[in-house]
Automatic annotation (TrEMBL):
InterPro entries: NAD(P)-bd_dom_sf, SDR_fam, SDR_oxidoreductase. This is Uncharacterized protein. Keywords: Oxidoreductase. Transmembrane segments: none annotated. Signal peptide: none annotated. One of its GO terms (molecular function) is oxidoreductase activity. Belongs to the short-chain dehydrogenases/reductases (SDR) family. It comes from the Eukaryota.
Length: 309
């Protein structure tokens, strides 16, 4: 089947989650002011937090709780009724659950852990599938789906196990789903991996209760918390406006350059991921002999032929 070259329409419809602050707010503001011909669906849990948006026929603020399937369905239905389609989905909403992971054994801790996965993984996964479903039916026009993960989707810090679980899950889901998409659909799926950003993200952190046995200010988790809460160090973090500009650039360049599976944003993210991937490669090489001796001749080649890589 012949594939029509991908191109965005002159007035594409953006659907962005988490627009109350940070990257989402900067992105929504940028689109509504610098790209006024683009149509925008800006969402947040509290509709009042979107009052900064200009009143325009091209802008539709909507309440959305990404942890609620009903809220997701309502927002998608309203968008399709209002604008007719979605051309660009940016799954940006999320937060960090921080604390001693062992404390999630309590009923309250278990509930917090489940809420983390609902917001950071299940919500974006559902929105991705809703968007994909209507994008693939647009006779080759397709669309772009960007899932904002984090450098924390490929490396970890102490005290944020469930946050990392959610971001690793989102990356794996996105990567695997991209391999299911038929070329003629023209749906481009990618991951954004920011480093640390000067947003309300830190103040929006939710916390597990302290756990017996992890007392003291020098535990790995407490040291990491100290870094995150240091206002002087936060001045070195990336500006959300710059990330928003880069995300728009990524989308607008898809027609000419295609879309990378992973787009790293921030010198910290790039450097730390380079170091982490280098460490993993060293471990992989060191374990080659053990790995090979438990297998069979031709095993790797058949897996490659089957499309595992």
């Amino acid at each position: 089947m012949t594939t029509t070259p991908f191109s965005l329409p002159p007035s594409p419809v953006w659907f962005i989650t988490g627009c109350s602050s940070g990257i989402g707010r900067s992105l929504a503001h940028l689109i509504s002011t610098v790209h006024p011909t683009h149509r925008l669906v800006a969402t947040a849990r509290n509709l009042s937090s979107l009052s900064y948006l200009p009143q325009s026929n091209n802008t539709l603020p909507l309440p959305l709780d990404v942890s609620s399937p009903t809220s997701i369905t309502t927002a998608i239905t309203t968008t399709l009724s209002h604008f007719g389609n979605i051309d660009i989905l940016v799954n940006n909403a999320g937060y960090m659950l921080l604390g001693d992971t062992e404390s999630s054994l309590t009923p309250a801790g278990t509930a917090l852990a489940h809420e983390q996965l609902e917001t950071n993984f299940w919500g974006p996964a559902s929105l991705t599938l809703h968007a994909l479903k209507q994008m693939r039916k647009k006779t080759g026009n397709g669309g772009v789906i960007l899932n904002v993960a984090s450098m924390g989707g490929r490396l970890t810090v102490p005290g944020a196990a469930y946050y990392h679980a959610s971001k690793f899950a989102l990356e794996g889901f996105t990567d695997a789903l991209a391999k299911e998409i038929r070329p003629e659909w023209n749906v481009k799926l990618g991951i954004i991996e920011p480093g640390v950003v000067k947003t309300a993200f830190v103040t929006g952190v939710r916390r597990l209760e302290d756990c017996e046995g992890y007392e003291g200010g020098d535990t790995p988790r407490k040291v990491m918390e100290g870094f995150m809460e240091d206002e002087e160090k936060q001045q070195l973090w990336s500006e959300p406006g710059k990330l928003a500009e880069e995300i728009v650039r990524v989308v607008l360049e898809v027609e000419e350059r295609g879309l990378a599976m992973r787009t790293v944003l921030g010198p910290d993210a790039w450097g730390l991921l380079r170091t982490e991937l280098g460490r993993q490669m060293e471990e992989l090489e060191q374990g080659k002999e053990r790995a090979v001796r438990v297998g069979k001749e031709g095993q790797l080649e058949e897996m490659v032929k089957a499309g595992f890589i």
